[in-house]
Design brief:
Rna Polymerase Sigma Factor, Chain: A; Arc Repressor Mutant, subunit A; Nuclear Transport Factor 2, Chain: A
């Protein structure tokens, strides 16, 4: 059945036709909303808002652009509204008992950042992009890239993602945003400059996902973390390693201060079991704190960024993100 036939049936109130019309685009739209918002929960909400708006506004679809472009227009504007809203995820205070962290290097600004579960991303990693796309799909879903986007003004984020990540033409983006071509080009220029200031310096590329090199680094990290072997852990870190833990604002940069943070965790007697998963195209783990009752309780999700054969970054998220990965709240201690 053609897109025109499905559209006509959907306009007549056929919900199945609408689902068939939009289903091929839902996962890529979810990734788009995630890039815009930096929060998986917010992205899911924005996608649902997009689909409701598309269903209700289907009579306004004139067919001058593709259904995909029309959906991106709706999704982008829903995300812009969400970015402008005041109710983003708040910063929380350190509340780990019997553990005094070292002084952070600085305080982070993106308290609402959440990881993106890879099983949701696999289906869209190879979506066809426009000829003007500048970023690889894997790079543009990384935590470093998504975090940098959150620090740009909302409209600049929209223009950069639509142009440089997805490869839409400038005139298409101007139409999506009800803007002029000059305004889009100006916003893109400012967004590119702002993004480069906020991305980490270039480094040796990470090993390929699932490669022997990645597997070896991951295995060494698991052994060191589960056994609280500080020396083995520090040996895995780059000199400029970076640790963050949203929604906590504390950020640590440099091997020495990160070593002091990990030493404080281990000295407090906190021991973990790690369950492997993936997030944002990167190795990740569900972290479970071992309890005296023989149960390990979900403490959060760790996401690693690798460079060469070392760990360049570790981001710790709280246990509220575990369900997004299909991970349990607790499990028997090993």
């Amino acid at each position: 059945m053609t897109t025109g036939d499905l559209t006509a049936r959907a306009r007549a109130g056929d919900g199945d036709a609408f689902r068939e019309l939009t289903q091929p685009h839902r996962r890529e739209l979810l990734v788009h909303c995630y890039r815009m918002l930096g929060s998986f929960q917010d992205a899911e909400d924005a996608l649902q808002d997009t689909l409701v708006a598309a269903w209700q506004g289907l009579d306004g679809f004139q067919g001058r652009a593709s259904i995909r472009t029309w959906l991106y227009r709706i999704a982008t504007n829903r995300c812009l509204n969400a970015r402008r809203a005041a109710g983003r995820r708040p910063v929380v205070e350190w509340d780990v008992p019997n553990l005094e962290p070292p002084e952070p290097t600085r305080l982070g600004e993106v308290a609402w950042l959440e990881p993106y579960p890879d099983p949701r991303h696999d289906a869209v990693i190879d979506i066809p992009l426009g000829p003007e796309a500048r970023y690889e799909q894997s790079e543009s879903i990384s935590l470093a890239f998504v975090t940098a986007l959150q620090l740009l003004p909302p409209r600049q984020v929209a223009v950069l993602v639509l142009r440089d990540v997805l490869g839409f033409r400038a005139d298409e983006v101007a139409d999506m945003l009800d803007s002029s071509l000059d305004s889009v080009n100006s916003a893109l220029k400012r967004a590119r400059a702002g993004l480069q200031q906020r991305l980490p310096p270039a480094a040796e590329p990470p090993p390929s996902p699932g490669s022997p090199t990645e597997d070896a680094i991951v295995a060494r990290f698991v052994r060191a973390w589960e056994s609280a072997d500080l020396d083995a852990l520090v040996a895995l870190l780059t000199d400029d390693v970076f640790v963050s833990m949203p929604p906590l604002p504390f950020e640590y940069e440099g091997r020495d201060v990160v070593a002091r943070l990990c030493a404080a965790i281990f000295r407090a007697g906190r021991r973990f079991d790690l369950v492997p998963t993936r997030a944002n195209g990167q190795p990740a783990f569900g972290a479970y704190l071992r309890g005296s009752d023989g149960i390990s309780h979900g403490a959060g999700v760790y996401v690693l960024a690798l460079t060469g054969d070392r760990i360049r970054c570790m981001t710790r998220f709280d246990n509220g993100v575990l369900p997004s990965f299909g991970l349990p709240r607790s499990l028997p201690s090993r």
